[in-house]
Specification:
Elements lengths: L10 H11 L12 H10 L9 E7 L2 E7 L4 H12 L8 E5 L3 E4 L21 E2 L13 E4 L12 E2 L3 E4 L6 H11 L1 H13 L4 H13 L2 H21 L7 H9 L12 E7 L1 H8 L15 E8 L3
Antiparallel strand pairs: 1-2, 1-10, 2-9, 3-4, 4-8, 5-7, 6-8, 6-9
Helix pairs in contact: 5-7, 6-7
Length: about 300
């Protein structure tokens, strides 16, 4: 399966119900290209004191500068290892979805023919997920691609493929809808438990009967009663909630909140967001591969964490 990012108020609960019834150590050595590193740091002396490892991803459209999070050491150290080996040099951004993300790291893309299907290339190992609620899918987030939950329930990351979030700015209602989407398994479980409760047998029968009769008005009234019961239990049940920081970021710069808690975020772009927007706007084919190759010229470390 391709290493792709596998992608409502409470009235959605009724719709779901009806559907159911209808059916490592940090490296301290000097990176090659020492002069490049010294030059980059001299332009911004503050970089020399950065507590995080910094890398520059040079593309046909310009440089993307990224900080790697210390909170995700397995992903950080693996990325550094591949960068030092020159693994990413000359690879393509092989998958681009406007207002969503740009994806790269497929080793098969280096010499890919025009129109060739990409996304299956790998490096032979995965990395255990490193989820952290403080690291989320805001615009510019560097994240690990992975196989879908059906074959990868542990949500382990690809050893080499990554994506950078472009996303879009979200309204308060958008953010609430995404939160509900993340919590859909919790809502489904609550709904199922309520409908199995003998105390709600009449409500369950009413919903089934109104649906069979095509009585939309009565069905909506019964559905509202079910929604109210679900909401009461939902408030008492542990569930995912966006932090104030997440909500502020998604409203101000944008992102892809529905991926939070499902894909490891291990870094962020600190300079070059305009490049992300430029890359995210290119024409693509039906498989989301850019019609004109977007090549990663070189990736290099310009500063190792202190």
């Amino acid at each position: 399966m391709s290493k792709k990012i596998c992608f409502s108020g409470y009235s959605c609960v009724l719709m779901l119900f009806l559907l159911m019834f209808g059916s490592c150590k940090t490296r301290s050595k000097t990176v090659s290209g020492k002069n490049d590193k010294a030059s980059e740091v001299s332009k911004n002396p503050a970089l020399s004191n950065s507590p995080e490892t910094l890398v520059v991803m040079s593309t046909d459209s310009g440089d993307i500068k990224i900080r790697l999070y210390n909170e995700t050491p397995l992903h950080r150290d693996n990325f550094i290892k591949l960068v030092e080996k020159g693994f990413y040099d000359s690879l393509l951004f092989h998958r681009v979805i406007s207002n969503f993300m740009i994806q790269g790291g497929d080793p098969d893309s280096k010499h890919a023919q025009p129109g060739q299907m990409l996304g299956e290339g790998d490096i032979g190992y995965t990395i255990p997920a490193e989820f952290n609620p403080q690291l989320f899918h805001k615009k510019g987030a560097l994240c690990a691609a992975r196989q879908g939950d059906d074959v990868n329930p542990q949500k382990a990351s690809s050893g080499c493929q990554f994506y950078i979030v472009q996303g879009r700015k979200l309204s308060e209602n958008d953010i609430q809808q995404f939160e509900n989407r993340i919590n859909r398994p919790v809502l489904n479980q609550i709904t199922d438990q309520l409908l199995k409760n003998p105390a709600n047998a009449k409500l369950k029968e009413d919903i089934a009967r109104f649906r069979q009769q095509g009585n939309r008005d009565s069905l909506m009234i019964a559905g509202k009663k079910l929604d109210e019961l679900v909401l009461i239990e939902y408030k008492k049940t542990p569930h995912y909630e966006f932090s104030a920081e997440q909500k502020a970021a998604y409203a101000s710069i944008g992102g892809t909140p529905h991926l939070d808690g499902s894909y490891t975020v291990f870094g962020e772009v600190y300079e070059g967001l305009a490049i992300i927007d430029k890359l995210g706007a290119v024409p693509t084919n039906k498989n989301d591969r850019p019609l004109k190759d977007l090549r990663i010229k070189k990736v290099r470390v310009i500063h190792y964490k202190k």
